[in-house]
Amino acid sequence: MREIDVGVITERVKGLCMEANFDLGQDVLDAFKRARAKEESPAGIEVLGQLEENASIARQERVAICQDTGIAVVFVELGQDVHLVGGDLNHAINEGVRQGYQEGYLRKSLCHPFTRANTGDNTPAVIHVRIVSGDKVKLIVAPKGGGSENMSRVTMLTPAAGKEGIVEYVVQRVKESGPNPCPPTIIGVGIGGTFENAALLAKEALLRPIGSENPDPELASLEGEILERINKLGIGPQGLGGRTTSLAVHINMMPCHIASLPLAVNIQCHAQRHKEAVI
Length: 279
Ligand code: SF4
What we know:
By secondary structure, the protein is of the alpha/beta class. The chain contains 8 helices and 10 strands.
């Protein structure tokens, strides 16, 4: 049994909150470049160039990529041979978020749902813990912006809807969202499981690097089909028109009840932020 002090987790989460907000992943930057080379709309080309420049400034000057620095979503893969000592895991993660958002001058974006009073330190984080084999702890911090999260949906299709129904729903969701989720977007799709599980599958699908191939050939083909349909909508970068409405569609799937076909669409804006660390 390996002992890990939760103070280490606080330190890592703190750093990851800042890095995620300052330093857009290379996969996203590469996707901007590829999209720019293919984009036909002058406004779209201009916007994609601005997104690259914005990301470059944020990285160099260590400032936030976007004013909406997000709700801190934290995924934890906790090795079953790890014994956490020195305090409570949830507390340690929230302390890391608190310190990271304070030190990084990141906007505090959480409030009481009714009074809208700000919690003041961007906590509580949304924490997903999964027990895995081994003696390590993997942390992924994925700040999620409100604009794109607001456009996300979970629905329970009838089994008869099938693949066609799934494609129609996802494309329609992106169409109805228009410019609101700050395109170009990444579309996380969760199929199967239960109501709540579909949403988590969709969110986890967003963590896959843009440009990577889905290991399931059927899902890879479905991703391509949906992306093609989405990019014919003409919404374009920042909704100003063009071919690049989405950079990628990522699907996660698991079996579901014989009576159900759960489907979740988690829309991610161009500020596709996530950083990870293994302790
Ligand atoms: S949806 Fe994304 S890009 Fe738009 S304001 Fe929020 S974080 Fe920024």
